[in-house]
Amino acid sequence: MAKSAEQKAKILHIYKMLYERTDEEHTITINEIIQSLSSLGINAERKSIYDDIRVLRELGFDIIGVKSKNYSYYLGSREFQIPELKLVIDAVVSARFLTSKKTKELIDGLCNLVSKYQKKELIQNTGIYSKAKSQNEHVYYNIDSINEAISKNARIKFSYFDYDINKEKVYRGVKGKYKVSPYALIWEDDCYYLVCYYERYNITQFKVDKMESIEILREKIDMEKREKFDLSAYTKPMFNMFKGDPVKAEIIFDMSLLNVVFDRFGLDITVQPLTKNKFKAFLNVSISPTFISWLFTFKDKAEVIAPQSLVDEIKNTIDKLSKTYSC
C-alpha cells in the first residue's frame, strides 16, 4: 500500500480497534494502537494518533479518555447498549418464523455491534432455541418482498402450503392462486403474519413462513378500502391470530388472575370488583377455539356470563370433549 493510502486508512484502523477491542472495562493505550498499526504495515507517531482521535471525536464518535498510569481510550456510546441488544437477541431467538440458520446469522450480526469482550458475554447469555423453528429459508426474503409491495401499494401473488403427516409440503389449491392486497406485517405469538385483503375472505391473514414464490404485481391495491381498515381493531380481539365472531364478553375471574388478565388485554380494559375474591372483566374478544382454550386453563376460576353465544360455544366445546374422553 502506498504511503499516502496507508495514512488515509490509518484513522479507519484506529476506529476499528476502538470499536472491536474496547468498552468501559477494556481500554487501549496509544502504544498499543501504534503496535497494532505497525503490524498492519502502517507507521505512526504519537502526535498523529492524538490528531486522529481528535478528528473522530469531532465527527461525533464518543471516544473516552481514561487517566491512569498509561493514558488510554475506549469507545463509549454505541448504536445499541448491552440491555437493548439483549432484548433484540431474545426476540430473534423466540421468533418461530425464523429458521435456525437465519437466527444464528442475525445473532452474529447483532453481536458484532459491540466489543469482542461484550460479544462473548452476549453469546454466553443467549438462550437456546427452545421453540420449534421454521424450515422455510425464504422467509427473510418474503418479509422483504411484502414490505416492498406495501410501500408501493401493490398487490402480490404467492403460493401457500401446509405440511402433511410425512412432513411434506402440501399446497393449498393451485400454486400461485392467492392474489391479495397486502396491508401490514404483524408479529403475534412469535410468528409473523401478513394481514391483507383477499376477495374470498375479505380481511384475512397468512403466516409469512408458509408463503412461497411471492410476486409483486403491477396491480395497485384499493386505497379506499385500505384507508378504512383499522389494524388495531382487527387484531385486538383475536387470540393467536384466530378469527371469530367479535363480541363484548363479560367474564368473572378469581382475583388471583387480575394481573394475568391485565397482561393479556392491557390496562385500558374495564374491570369491576365483585367481592374480595372475584372481579368482572369486560373484554372485546373473538369467539374462537384459542380463546376458549385460554379460558379453560383457569378451570373454575373463570366464568363467562355474557354474551349467550359465547356461553353456548363453551358448552358445545365441553360436550365434544366429554364425548371424546368418555369411557
Task: Name its key features.
327 residues; alpha+beta; Arc Repressor Mutant, subunit A; 4 domains; six-stranded antiparallel beta sheet; 27% strand
Order of helices and strands: HEHHEEHHHHEEEEEEHHEHEEHEH
Please tell me the total number of domains. 4
- Write down how many β-strands occur, each being a DSSP E stretch of 2 or more residues: 13
The biggest sheet amounts to: 6 strands, antiparallel
Q: What Rg is obtained from the alpha carbons, in whole angstroms?
A: 28 Å
Bin the helical content.
40-55%
Structural class: alpha+beta
Overall mean pLDDT score?
A: 86
Unreliable stretches covering 5 or more consecutive residues:
none
What percentage of the residues does DSSP assign to strands (E)?
Answer: 25-35%
Query: What is the end-to-end distance?
Result: 84 Å
Work out the helix count: 12
User: What is the global morphology?
Assistant: elongated
Give the SSE layout.
Blueprint lengths: L2 H19 L6 E2 H10 L6 H13 L4 E4 L5 E4 L6 H13 L5 H12 L4 H9 L14 H14 L1 E10 L5 E3 L6 E11 L2 E8 L3 E6 L3 E10 L2 H6 L2 H5 L9 E10 L3 H8 L4 E4 L4 E10 L1 H8 L5 E5 L1 H17 L3
Antiparallel strand pairs: 1-3, 2-3, 4-5, 4-6, 4-9, 6-7, 7-8, 10-12, 10-13, 11-12
Describe the structure.
With 327 residues, the protein is an alpha+beta fold. It folds into 4 domains: 3-75, Arc Repressor Mutant, subunit A; 82-124, no CATH class; 139-235, no CATH class; 245-324, 2-Layer Sandwich (Alpha-Beta Plaits). The protein is built from 12 helices and 13 strands. The strands form 3 sheets. Strands 4, 5, 6, 7, 8 and 9 form a 6-stranded antiparallel sheet that branches. Strand 2 (63-66) and strand 3 (72-75) form a beta hairpin. It is elongated and about 85 Å long. The model has no long low-confidence stretch (mean pLDDT 86).
